[in-house]
């Protein structure tokens, strides 16, 4: 229950900030900036809609609440075209895998001298396969995360996925998996 309240407070704070920015542009008669800012807000809302359409509730809830509940990593999710994990035979298993990958990067992220660590998560379903790319930039405990990421990569390969972990350093890590779909 506490997490729900934190997420709601975070969303309320964000929307109040958006309104303040828009009011500022309007007062300054910066209508083009106002229109551009509205497009950004709309794009963010559309991205959240695409996350919701994944329909695998544990993953959807985690991704939509992540930035409100975690301050050591900012997540950005890119989904080029809508799809539902629940329509895929392997969907729940892949959903749990994605959830584990995000949690792993969040757990091994280190303080980054006041800069944000970022995790760009790209999910692209195309041509009978699901491409999952987790691209971390910032400060990472590479030593402790290497073993766990290798296990994740191996697990994906055991499920028939092409999986690649490169580069993997203290400041950058990319795990890319291509899961064949039946």
Task: Explain what the structure shows.
By secondary structure, the chain is an alpha+beta fold. The protein is 53% helix and 21% strand. It is built from five helices and five strands; from the N terminus they run αααβαββαββ. It has helices at residues 2-27, 31-52, 57-69, 91-108, 142-158; strands at 74-78, 118-126, 129-137, 162-168, 172-180. A five-stranded mixed sheet has the order 1-2-3-5-4. The chain is globular. The model has no long low-confidence stretch (mean pLDDT 91).
β-strand percent reads 15-25%
Runs in which pLDDT lies below 50 for 5 or more consecutive residues are none
Query: Structural class of the helices, strands and pairings?
Result: alpha+beta
What distance lies between the first and last C-alpha atoms, to the nearest angstrom? 38 Å
The coarse silhouette is globular
Could you give the order of strands across the largest sheet? 1-2-3-5-4
Rg estimate, integer Å: 18 Å
Record field, number of beta strands: 5
Task: Tally the helices.
Answer: 5
Overall average pLDDT: 91
User: Helical residue percent?
Assistant: 40-55%
> Tell me about the biggest sheet?
5 strands, mixed
Order of helices and strands: HHHEHEEHEE
């Amino acid at each position: 229950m506490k997490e729900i309240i934190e997420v709601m407070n975070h969303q309320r704070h964000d929307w109040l900030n958006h309104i303040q920015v828009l009011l500022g542009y309007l007062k300054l008669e910066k209508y083009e900036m106002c229109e551009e800012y509205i497009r950004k807000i709309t794009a963010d809302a559309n991205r959240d809609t695409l996350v919701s359409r994944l329909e695998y509730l544990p993953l959807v809830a985690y991704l939509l609440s992540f930035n409100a509940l975690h301050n050591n990593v900012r997540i950005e999710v890119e989904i080029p075209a809508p799809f539902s994990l629940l329509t895929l035979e392997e969907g729940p298993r892949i959903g749990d895998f994605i959830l584990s990958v995000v949690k792993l990067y969040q757990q091994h992220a280190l303080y980054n001298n006041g800069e944000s660590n970022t995790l760009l998560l790209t999910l692209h379903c195309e041509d009978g396969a699901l491409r999952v790319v987790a691209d971390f930039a910032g400060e990472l405990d590479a030593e402790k995360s290497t073993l766990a990421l290798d296990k994740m990569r191996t697990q994906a390969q055991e499920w028939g996925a092409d999986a690649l972990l490169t580069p993997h350093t203290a400041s950058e890590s990319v795990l890319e998996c291509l899961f064949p779909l039946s």
